[in-house]
Amino acid sequence: MTLPVHTAEATPTRPTTGPTTARAQLLNDRTVDDYRRSVTAGTERVARRLAEVTGPFTGVRPDELAPLVDAIDLDRPLGDTTAALDELDRVYLRDAVWFHHPRYLAHLNCPVVIPALLGEAVLSAVNSSMDTWDQSAGGTLIERRLIDWTAARIGLGPAADGVFTSGGTQSNLHALLLAREEALAGATPTDRRVLLPRLRIIASAAGHFSVQKAAKLLGLAPDAVVVVETGPDRRMRPGAVRHEIARCRRDGLPVAAVVATAGTTDFGTIDPLDEIADVCATAGVWLHVDAAYGCGLLVSPTRRHLLDGIERADSVTVDYHKSFFQPVSSSAVVVRDGRTLRHATWHADYLNPARMVAQRIPNQVDKSLQTTRRFDALKLWLTLRVMGPDAVGELFDEVCDRAAQAWDLVAADPRFEVLTRSSLSTVVFRWRPTGPGRELADAANLHAREALAASGLGVVAGTRVDGRQYLKFTVLNPATTREDIGYVLDLIAEHAGRYVHTHAASPAADLTCPVG
Ligand SMILES: Cc1ncc(COP(=O)(O)O)c(C=O)c1O
Q1: How many whole angstroms from 168 Cα to the centroid of ligand 1?
Q2: How does strand 225-228 pair with strand 200-204?
Q3: N or C: which end of the chain has fewer CB within 10 A?
Q4: pLDDT value at 189 more than 90
């Protein structure tokens, strides 16, 4: 049989010339020059903006930006890349929040490494889908190698397996689904109905809210997550975990999982993993370690020991898009016993029929909650192939060092009080008024955060601890200096001081404190 040869002549008749025809916008063998030009133009715009930005944010307000976005008629295309990029510049790039800027100190967003951006460009153009081998081929093998590599770094042993996910929230949901199914193993449908509302998950008060969300999505009871208060070091206390497991069992409530955190969102603290693993092993309870933030330590040349005990987990969440300097999304759930991933398996005749398992065709959809799925693993692959793990770990070490310096700076500054020293790269602190108006401290800190962002000179996060308003630095940029931190602290003190000065006379201070 002769296969048809794909040539320009052989392709049927619709008009294919001219940049505005629909066919000309499809990426294929005949449009590669436009593809190059278009993507280069986009890269050039971003590069120009990156080179120009003087602050992490312009401070634009939603009511200023929304009319520009709303005014765009999506049914009237511009028909031209340059015009579309000009428009995009006005509605997005000009006022974007830039995580690469050294005074972006707010959330768990990292500046990204260039090899990962290269991966992003390649993966979206090739557009592999990771559900089945017949939609990804080598992509599947690359993702599997990275899962094996991550599992080996964790130390999970030869039966480990896992899959890339969209983020820590999904990884935690996935892990807890497996834990739920293991807890219900062998139950009849009737038993399941009885047991499901009784299942409990033990988590830390400093853990991530996605655990609560997961419990809800998994059909557990509204009070299924038993929250264990932390000690003054903001770490889960193994004794408290043991106590809660015993109490649940006394009350006839089976414990499906204990969730420990390696890198709490606010405090960057790491739960005593080894001791909690002891408790779980004795009780026969699934241990999930949420290392969404702390996973960067897996490649740290100096701090890997902080994760000791993680190798005893049944499942681990790792967010490469937090501490491996990867663009969103890049995350994985990794499990000690790969067989448990079967709890997320469904065989569809059109996609991954069961016979393919016997044929040893590697279909990642058998392990994933998603069907069509991006080849996000390529970003990490190119990062490791270009830079290597040590280089990534050195970057993460640098931000941990910088955060430690920031903590020292805040602790030595009488204008501020600071909470628990982080094992990773956060600093939780608050401005403290000394004179009259002390009762305005919460509102003043809240105001300072908003006024700082509105000024565009810095962005910090806020959080509440023990009912009081705090501010938070999350340092994830090695380019952030002590001077940047000092400058931002001065700005915060200035905004907060001015707020108290203005409002001290007014007894009904407005706690929503509009920026002004
Ligand atoms: C400890 C922890 N777990 C999970 C998550 C959720 O991760 P994602 O935002 O990637 O869904 C976060 C996010 O900040 C986190 O800090």
Answers
A1: 5
A2: parallel
A3: N
A4: yes
Question: Quick one: average pLDDT of 449-455?
Answer: 98
- Rounded to whole angstroms, the maximal C-alpha distance in the chain is 91
Bridge partners, 465 (sequence order) = 468
Angle, to 10 degrees, between the axis of helix 210-217 and the axis of helix 168-183? Answer: 50
Tens of pLDDT, residues 470-495 = 999 999 999 999 999 999 999 999 99
438 C-beta neighbours (distance < 10 Å), count = 12
Nearest CA to ligand 1 atom 7: 168
Residue 360 CA to residue 269 CA, distance in Å, equals 42
Q: How far is the CA of 167 from the centre of ligand 1 (A)?
A: 7
E strand or H helix that includes residue 257: strand 255-261
Helical spans, DSSP H, in 17-113: 32-52, 62-70, 81-88
For the chain, the residue count is 516
Q: Rounded to whole angstroms, how far apart are CA atoms 224 and 212?
A: 8
Distance in Å, CA 320 to ligand 1 centroid: 11
Q: Are 57 and 456 in contact (CB under 8 A)?
A: yes
| Distances 96 to 87, 167, 458 between C-alpha atoms, Å | 14, 22, 13
